[in-house]
Amino acid sequence: MNTIIEVKDLYKEYPGGTKAVQGVSFEVQRGEFFGFLGPNGAGKSTTMNMLVNLVKKTSGSIKIDGFSIDTDADEIYKRVGFAMQEVGLDETATAREMLQLHGRLYHMKPAEIEEQIKSLLKLVELEKVADRYASTYSGGMRRRFDLALSLIHKPSVLFLDEPTTGLDPHARQLIWSHLRELNKQGMTIFLTTHFMEEAEELCDRIAIMDGGKIVTEGTVEQLLKKHKAKNLEEVFLKTTGSNIANEEVNLKASDPYTRNR
What we know:
By secondary structure, the chain is an alpha/beta fold. The chain has a single domain (3-244), classed as P-loop containing nucleotide triphosphate hydrolases (Rossmann fold). 35% of the residues lie in helices and 23% in strands. It has 9 helices and 10 strands. It has helices at 44-51, 73-79, 95-105, 110-123, 139-151, 169-184, 196-202, 220-226, 232-240; strands at 3-13, 19-29, 33-37, 59-64, 67-68, 80-83, 157-161, 188-192, 205-210, 213-218. A 6-stranded mixed sheet has the order 6-7-8-3-9-10, sandwiched between helices. The chain has a 4-stranded antiparallel sheet with strand order 2-1-4-5, covered by helices on one side. A hairpin with a 2-residue loop joins strand 4 (59-64) and strand 5 (67-68). The longest helix is centred in the last third of the chain and has 16 residues, at 169-184. The termini are far apart.
Protein backbone atom coordinates (compact mmCIF):
# COMPACT_ATOMS: atom_id res chain seq x y z
CA MET A 1 0.00 0.00 0.00
CA ASN A 2 1.03 3.63 -0.47
CA THR A 3 -0.31 6.89 0.85
CA ILE A 4 -3.35 8.29 -0.99
CA ILE A 5 -4.47 10.94 1.56
CA GLU A 6 -1.80 13.04 3.28
CA VAL A 7 -2.78 15.76 5.74
CA LYS A 8 -0.20 17.88 7.59
CA ASP A 9 -0.72 20.57 10.26
CA LEU A 10 -4.27 21.35 9.12
CA TYR A 11 -5.96 24.35 10.76
CA LYS A 12 -9.35 25.96 10.39
CA GLU A 13 -10.26 29.15 12.22
CA TYR A 14 -13.59 30.85 11.52
CA PRO A 15 -14.25 34.60 11.72
CA GLY A 16 -14.67 35.50 15.37
CA GLY A 17 -11.85 33.25 16.50
CA THR A 18 -13.56 29.83 16.59
CA LYS A 19 -10.81 27.23 16.12
CA ALA A 20 -12.53 24.19 14.60
CA VAL A 21 -9.41 22.26 13.57
CA GLN A 22 -6.06 22.69 15.29
CA GLY A 23 -2.97 21.12 13.75
CA VAL A 24 -4.41 17.85 12.46
CA SER A 25 -2.04 15.46 10.67
CA PHE A 26 -2.71 11.93 9.40
CA GLU A 27 -2.30 9.62 6.43
CA VAL A 28 -4.62 7.13 4.73
CA GLN A 29 -3.18 4.31 2.64
CA ARG A 30 -4.43 3.31 -0.80
CA GLY A 31 -7.18 0.71 -0.52
CA GLU A 32 -7.69 1.35 3.21
CA PHE A 33 -11.05 1.66 4.96
CA PHE A 34 -10.40 4.55 7.34
CA GLY A 35 -12.76 5.61 10.13
CA PHE A 36 -12.82 9.20 11.39
CA LEU A 37 -14.75 9.48 14.65
CA GLY A 38 -15.52 12.16 17.19
CA PRO A 39 -18.33 13.89 19.08
CA ASN A 40 -20.26 16.66 17.36
CA GLY A 41 -18.12 19.76 17.49
CA ALA A 42 -14.88 17.79 17.43
CA GLY A 43 -13.98 19.14 13.99
CA LYS A 44 -14.32 15.93 11.98
CA SER A 45 -16.95 17.20 9.52
CA THR A 46 -15.00 20.43 9.05
CA THR A 47 -11.88 18.35 8.36
CA MET A 48 -13.69 16.17 5.83
CA ASN A 49 -15.13 19.22 4.09
CA MET A 50 -11.65 20.72 3.82
CA LEU A 51 -10.37 17.49 2.27
CA VAL A 52 -12.88 17.80 -0.58
CA ASN A 53 -12.47 21.61 -0.78
CA LEU A 54 -16.01 22.45 0.34
CA VAL A 55 -14.49 24.44 3.21
CA LYS A 56 -11.29 26.43 2.71
CA LYS A 57 -8.52 25.61 5.15
CA THR A 58 -6.80 28.32 7.14
CA SER A 59 -3.39 26.67 6.87
CA GLY A 60 -1.68 23.33 6.47
CA SER A 61 -1.42 20.96 3.52
CA ILE A 62 -3.75 18.41 1.94
CA LYS A 63 -2.70 15.97 -0.76
CA ILE A 64 -4.93 13.36 -2.37
CA ASP A 65 -3.41 10.83 -4.75
CA GLY A 66 -0.31 13.03 -4.90
CA PHE A 67 -2.19 16.22 -5.84
CA SER A 68 -2.29 19.33 -3.65
CA ILE A 69 -5.64 20.90 -2.82
CA ASP A 70 -3.97 24.32 -3.28
CA THR A 71 -2.80 23.85 -6.87
CA ASP A 72 -4.57 20.78 -8.26
CA ALA A 73 -8.14 20.96 -6.99
CA ASP A 74 -9.59 19.98 -10.38
CA GLU A 75 -7.49 16.81 -10.43
CA ILE A 76 -8.66 15.96 -6.94
CA TYR A 77 -12.33 16.44 -7.91
CA LYS A 78 -11.87 13.78 -10.60
CA ARG A 79 -10.56 11.31 -8.04
CA VAL A 80 -12.98 11.67 -5.13
CA GLY A 81 -16.61 10.86 -4.49
CA PHE A 82 -18.51 12.43 -1.60
CA ALA A 83 -21.79 11.26 -0.08
CA MET A 84 -22.94 13.83 2.46
CA GLN A 85 -25.00 13.19 5.58
CA GLU A 86 -28.06 14.93 4.13
CA VAL A 87 -29.22 13.25 0.93
CA GLY A 88 -30.26 15.84 -1.66
CA LEU A 89 -32.03 14.36 -4.68
CA ASP A 90 -34.10 15.82 -7.49
CA GLU A 91 -37.54 14.52 -6.53
CA THR A 92 -38.85 14.91 -10.09
CA ALA A 93 -36.09 12.88 -11.74
CA THR A 94 -35.50 9.15 -11.90
CA ALA A 95 -32.35 7.41 -10.70
CA ARG A 96 -31.31 6.72 -14.26
CA GLU A 97 -31.78 10.35 -15.32
CA MET A 98 -29.74 11.69 -12.40
CA LEU A 99 -26.94 9.20 -12.97
CA GLN A 100 -26.84 10.17 -16.65
CA LEU A 101 -26.67 13.87 -15.74
CA HIS A 102 -23.86 13.35 -13.22
CA GLY A 103 -21.92 11.30 -15.75
CA ARG A 104 -22.17 14.13 -18.30
CA LEU A 105 -21.04 16.65 -15.68
CA TYR A 106 -17.87 14.57 -15.30
CA HIS A 107 -17.43 14.62 -19.11
CA MET A 108 -17.80 10.87 -19.40
CA LYS A 109 -18.54 9.32 -22.80
CA PRO A 110 -22.18 8.20 -23.33
CA ALA A 111 -21.27 4.52 -23.64
CA GLU A 112 -19.14 4.72 -20.50
CA ILE A 113 -21.99 6.37 -18.60
CA GLU A 114 -24.47 3.66 -19.56
CA GLU A 115 -22.03 0.90 -18.64
CA GLN A 116 -21.36 2.50 -15.25
CA ILE A 117 -25.08 3.05 -14.58
CA LYS A 118 -25.77 -0.61 -15.25
CA SER A 119 -22.98 -1.63 -12.88
CA LEU A 120 -23.98 0.80 -10.11
CA LEU A 121 -27.68 -0.03 -10.18
CA LYS A 122 -26.77 -3.68 -9.73
CA LEU A 123 -24.32 -2.87 -6.94
CA VAL A 124 -26.85 -0.90 -4.87
CA GLU A 125 -29.77 -3.16 -5.83
CA LEU A 126 -31.90 -0.48 -7.49
CA GLU A 127 -32.23 -2.03 -10.96
CA LYS A 128 -35.99 -2.58 -10.64
CA VAL A 129 -36.71 1.03 -9.58
CA ALA A 130 -34.21 2.86 -11.78
CA ASP A 131 -36.98 4.52 -13.79
CA ARG A 132 -39.11 5.59 -10.83
CA TYR A 133 -39.03 9.14 -9.49
CA ALA A 134 -36.71 9.68 -6.52
CA SER A 135 -39.70 11.03 -4.56
CA THR A 136 -41.03 7.46 -4.33
CA TYR A 137 -37.87 6.04 -2.72
CA SER A 138 -37.66 4.92 0.89
CA GLY A 139 -34.92 6.24 3.19
CA GLY A 140 -32.74 3.21 2.58
CA MET A 141 -33.21 3.40 -1.18
CA ARG A 142 -32.30 7.10 -1.15
CA ARG A 143 -29.08 6.39 0.76
CA ARG A 144 -28.12 3.66 -1.70
CA PHE A 145 -28.91 5.91 -4.64
CA ASP A 146 -26.83 8.74 -3.15
CA LEU A 147 -23.97 6.25 -2.86
CA ALA A 148 -24.38 5.33 -6.54
CA LEU A 149 -24.30 9.02 -7.54
CA SER A 150 -21.01 9.53 -5.70
CA LEU A 151 -19.51 6.61 -7.65
CA ILE A 152 -20.58 7.46 -11.21
CA HIS A 153 -17.14 8.79 -12.21
CA LYS A 154 -15.23 5.84 -10.70
CA PRO A 155 -13.42 7.75 -7.94
CA SER A 156 -10.27 6.47 -6.26
CA VAL A 157 -11.37 7.77 -2.85
CA LEU A 158 -14.90 7.75 -1.43
CA PHE A 159 -15.78 10.14 1.41
CA LEU A 160 -18.85 9.14 3.44
CA ASP A 161 -20.38 11.38 6.10
CA GLU A 162 -22.53 9.18 8.36
CA PRO A 163 -24.03 7.16 5.46
CA THR A 164 -26.39 5.02 7.56
CA THR A 165 -27.86 7.60 9.94
CA GLY A 166 -31.62 7.12 10.25
CA LEU A 167 -31.68 3.72 8.56
CA ASP A 168 -33.20 0.55 9.98
CA PRO A 169 -30.87 -2.41 10.72
CA HIS A 170 -31.67 -4.17 7.43
CA ALA A 171 -30.94 -1.09 5.31
CA ARG A 172 -27.76 -0.45 7.31
CA GLN A 173 -26.54 -3.98 6.62
CA LEU A 174 -27.19 -3.48 2.89
CA ILE A 175 -25.06 -0.32 2.87
CA TRP A 176 -22.31 -2.16 4.78
CA SER A 177 -22.36 -4.94 2.20
CA HIS A 178 -22.02 -2.46 -0.69
CA LEU A 179 -19.15 -0.63 1.03
CA ARG A 180 -17.28 -3.87 1.74
CA GLU A 181 -17.57 -4.81 -1.93
CA LEU A 182 -16.25 -1.42 -3.07
CA ASN A 183 -13.34 -1.65 -0.66
CA LYS A 184 -12.64 -5.22 -1.77
CA GLN A 185 -12.37 -3.90 -5.33
CA GLY A 186 -9.61 -1.53 -4.17
CA MET A 187 -11.45 1.70 -3.40
CA THR A 188 -10.14 3.80 -0.51
CA ILE A 189 -13.01 4.74 1.82
CA PHE A 190 -12.97 7.56 4.39
CA LEU A 191 -15.89 7.21 6.80
CA THR A 192 -17.36 9.33 9.57
CA THR A 193 -19.98 7.61 11.70
CA HIS A 194 -21.72 7.76 15.08
CA PHE A 195 -22.15 3.99 15.14
CA MET A 196 -19.29 2.27 16.96
CA GLU A 197 -20.40 -1.11 15.60
CA GLU A 198 -20.17 0.30 12.07
CA ALA A 199 -16.60 1.47 12.63
CA GLU A 200 -15.59 -1.84 14.19
CA GLU A 201 -17.17 -3.86 11.40
CA LEU A 202 -15.82 -1.88 8.45
CA CYS A 203 -12.65 0.05 9.26
CA ASP A 204 -9.04 -1.07 8.98
CA ARG A 205 -7.88 1.89 11.07
CA ILE A 206 -9.64 4.55 13.11
CA ALA A 207 -8.75 8.07 14.22
CA ILE A 208 -10.72 9.74 17.00
CA MET A 209 -10.90 13.52 17.06
CA ASP A 210 -11.90 15.87 19.87
CA GLY A 211 -11.44 19.60 20.43
CA GLY A 212 -10.11 20.08 16.91
CA LYS A 213 -7.29 17.55 17.41
CA ILE A 214 -6.75 13.84 16.84
CA VAL A 215 -6.57 12.27 20.28
CA THR A 216 -5.85 8.66 19.27
CA GLU A 217 -5.37 6.54 16.16
CA GLY A 218 -4.87 2.88 15.23
CA THR A 219 -6.57 -0.40 14.43
CA VAL A 220 -9.43 -1.46 16.68
CA GLU A 221 -7.14 -3.99 18.36
CA GLN A 222 -4.43 -1.37 18.91
CA LEU A 223 -6.93 1.12 20.38
CA LEU A 224 -8.42 -1.45 22.76
CA LYS A 225 -4.97 -2.42 24.00
CA LYS A 226 -3.66 1.15 24.22
CA HIS A 227 -6.62 2.43 26.23
CA LYS A 228 -7.30 -0.79 28.16
CA ALA A 229 -10.84 -0.88 26.88
CA LYS A 230 -13.35 -3.67 26.25
CA ASN A 231 -14.79 -2.12 23.10
CA LEU A 232 -14.56 0.90 20.83
CA GLU A 233 -17.35 2.70 22.69
CA GLU A 234 -15.22 2.61 25.83
CA VAL A 235 -12.21 3.92 23.90
CA PHE A 236 -14.37 6.78 22.66
CA LEU A 237 -15.54 7.62 26.18
CA LYS A 238 -12.01 7.52 27.59
CA THR A 239 -10.49 9.70 24.88
CA THR A 240 -13.25 12.30 24.44
CA GLY A 241 -15.24 12.21 27.68
CA SER A 242 -18.38 12.06 25.54
CA ASN A 243 -21.08 9.47 25.00
CA ILE A 244 -21.48 9.42 21.23
CA ALA A 245 -25.08 8.22 21.47
CA ASN A 246 -26.12 11.45 23.20
CA GLU A 247 -24.50 13.91 20.80
CA GLU A 248 -26.62 16.66 19.29
CA VAL A 249 -25.83 19.34 16.73
CA ASN A 250 -26.56 22.97 17.60
CA LEU A 251 -27.82 24.21 14.22
CA LYS A 252 -28.06 27.80 15.55
CA ALA A 253 -24.34 27.98 16.27
CA SER A 254 -22.05 29.98 13.97
CA ASP A 255 -20.48 26.64 13.10
CA PRO A 256 -22.82 23.74 14.01
CA TYR A 257 -19.88 21.36 14.07
CA THR A 258 -17.92 23.26 16.69
CA ARG A 259 -18.83 22.51 20.27
CA ASN A 260 -18.73 25.22 22.91
CA ARG A 261 -16.34 24.43 25.73
